[in-house]
Design a protein that fits this description.
There is one protein chain. The N and C termini lie far apart (about 35 Å). The protein is α/β, with parallel strands linked by helices. It is globular. It has a single domain, classed as 3-Layer(aba) Sandwich (Rossmann fold), CATH 3.40.50.150. Strands 6-5-4-7-8-10-9 form a 7-stranded mixed sheet, with helices on both faces. Strands 1-2-3 form a 3-stranded antiparallel sheet, with no helix packed on it. A hairpin with a 2-residue loop joins β9 and β10. The site of S-adenosylmethionine has 17 residues, from loops. The site of S-adenosylmethionine (SAM) has 17 residues, from loops.
């Protein structure tokens, strides 16, 4: 293990595999297994258009598909197809990152805790944060966006679930099983994002009964 000198990462890493020595808990949840996770998400894609509908939404919100893109909490890298330009996906689950390398050759992935990223001068036009903010406490989101403000030059796209309406019992049940411990009311997530970036648009989303929001913004430089 050695201190990573590549980019963005402040952690100790094995340079050959890009596996980061992280103290972040990986958990024993079955979906922490990359094979199960990827299969689960691909079934949701077939049944509900988990990725294709979201990519269409991102396109309708101005994502051209050629921008250099930093994908925060990239999972197994399914959003790497959003751009033909430079793409870097970052996720702290080493299994997910290995799977991303395997199924998306030619794209770049890094195993790291995104709350410990540092800017080393490399920049990206677009930042993507899909289904990741509900895994992070508010203070870590603020810190993450402060770092992103140094790395991103044009747009930030956030898609995340919010607290489900009382009448949406199935949605509430599904969210209660989510590994993310910080699913927030829409107003709370929005005010967090308004403090962290210059919010441009806000759309309500509903996918597989799950209520969420899609927010676009500009990095706010300090
Ligand atoms: C619900 S998944 C979404 C994955 C991907 N964005 C997608 O839509 O397919 C959330 C991801 O965030 C990652 N994650 C959560 N906290 C993280 C952190 N502190 N650093 C890096 N990745 C993190 C998890 O490992 C997981 O892959």
């Amino acid at each position: 293990m050695q201190k990573c000198k590549c980019f963005l990462c402040s952690q100790k890493t094995d340079r050959t595999s890009l596996i980061v020595e992280t103290t972040a808990p990986q958990g024993m949840h079955p979906l922490a297994n990359a094979y199960l996770w990827r299969s689960f998400r691909l079934i949701l894609e077939l049944g509900f258009g988990l990725y294709s509908r979201r990519i269409a939404l991102l396109r309708s919100l101005g994502l051209r598909g050629t921008e250099s893109t930093l994908d925060i909490g990239c999972g197994t890298g399914e959003f790497s197809v959003v751009t033909s330009g430079t793409y870097l996906g970052v996720d702290m689950n080493p299994q997910y990152v290995q799977s991303a390398h395997r199924f998306h050759p030619g794209k770049e992935f890094l195993c790291a805790d995104v709350t410990r990223l540092v800017s080393t001068g490399r920049s990206f036009e677009v930042g993507l944060l899909v289904d990741v903010l509900h895994h992070l406490p508010g203070e870590e989101i603020i810190r993450l966006f402060a770092t992103l403000a140094e790395i991103l030059t044009q747009r930030i796209y956030v898609i995340d679930p919010v607290t489900q309406s009382p009448s949406n019992r199935l949605g509430r049940w599904i969210i209660s099983k989510d590994r993310g411990r910080f699913v927030r009311p829409k107003s709370e997530l929005l005010s967090l994002l308004e403090g962290a970036m210059e919010v441009l648009t806000v759309h309500d989303t509903r996918l597989m009964l799950i209520e969420g929001i899609c927010v676009t913004g500009k990095p706010r430089r300090l």
